[in-house]
Design a protein that fits this description.
Elements: H1 9-16, E1 29-34, H2 51-64, E2 67-72, E3 83-90, E4 96-103, H3 112-115, E5 127-131, H4 138-154, E6 159-162, E7 174-177, E8 181-183, H5 188-199, E9 208-211, H6 216-229, E10 237-244, E11 249-255, E12 262-271, E13 288-296
Parallel strand pairs: 1-2, 5-6
Antiparallel strand pairs: 1-3, 2-6, 3-4, 5-7, 7-8, 8-9, 10-11, 11-12, 12-13
Helix pairs in contact: 4-5
């Protein structure tokens, strides 16, 4: 690379063929805060808000193991009307819950704290988050902004740009919440196809980074099953058992009809060579990839 060329981590990752399976951060609770001005590099933590209110929200999020994301609508920014906030969760029974409110003054964000303990409604559509946090990573803006605009033309009420979600090198990244589904390596055209399939409860292995309700090796196991046997609904496959052994994990994947009822999947972690993983990465570092070495039906 010459001195005049700009390093873009998403371009480099696609050239290398970096695997995405197993890269969705674990979590089941999200706090979304609409903020239409510029986002600091560290998102909500860097906002100049009332210190007491900000500390309340951060502590409540920590207690609930919730992730705080800033959001805004794609396209031209406007300042009319109140901002919105939301608490979204995916409970242990698989129920998807949402609770929304509005804020004008910083102190209004304190309403997020009791909302984290209240039961939300389960009759709302999914929230489609497109990472467009350019100050955190250049690729998130270069690839995320046009992807968000394309999706918002079809689903204007569901699509938001959001702050950093992780995995910058997989931009454009999309997170569907509270389903907890991470997609990556997208552009404006492929994102429309992926979301059309998602809305039809037809999840494909292509572009799937994982389900946030599962841990990385479990995510990789489900993605390998989807790649082998074809698309399935978000809850068509569940994890029956995960056993750690010397070289990796033995994972039982249970399917609902018409899918195979049970599969044994072997997953082995591999460390990649050191490389620059983000646009702003100060040094090369390694990443863990999860290699599925076998998928088989249990012997009886």
């Amino acid at each position: 690379m010459t001195a005049t060329e700009r390093f873009l981590c998403a371009d480099a990752a696609r050239t290398r063929g970096d695997p995405m399976a197993g890269t969705a951060p674990h979590g089941t609770v999200w706090i979304l805060i609409e903020y239409r001005q510029g986002w600091p590099v560290n998102g909500f933590d860097g906002l100049d808000l009332d210190p007491q209110t900000k500390a309340l929200v951060i502590e409540a999020a920590h207690q609930a193991q919730a992730r705080i994301l800033l959001i805004r609508r794609p396209g031209r920014r406007h300042s009319d009307g109140d901002n919105r906030w939301a608490v979204l969760s995916h409970d242990q029974g698989g129920t998807l819950l949402q609770r929304w409110g509005t804020w004008r003054r910083d102190e209004d964000l304190a309403h997020i704290v009791p909302a984290l303990k209240a039961r939300g409604t389960n009759d709302l559509g999914p929230v489609i988050l497109v990472c467009a946090h350019g100050l955190h990573d250049t690729c998130c803006a270069v690839r995320g902004l046009p992807t968000g605009r394309a999706l918002s033309r079809l689903w204007p009420d569901l699509v938001w740009e959001c702050s950093h979600v992780g995995g910058d090198r997989f931009a454009a990244n999309i997170v569907v919440v509270p389903d907890g589904v991470y997609y990556g390596g997208l552009d404006a055209q492929s994102a429309v196809t992926v979301i059309e399939d998602h809305m039809a409860d037809r999840i494909r292995a292509d572009h799937l980074r994982g389900y946030t309700t599962l841990f990385p090796p479990q995510q990789a196991a489900v993605i390998a099953v989807l790649r082998r046997f074809g698309p399935a609904g978000r809850n068509d496959y569940t994890i029956g058992e995960t056993v750690r052994h010397d070289s990796g994990w033995h994972i039982k994947v249970t399917g609902r009809p018409p899918h195979l009822p049970e599969l044994d999947v072997e997953v082995v972690p591999r460390l990649t060579p050191p490389r620059q993983l983000t646009c702003r990465g100060p040094a090369d570092s390694s990443a863990v990839r999860y290699e599925v070495t076998s998928i088989r039906t249990p012997s009886r």
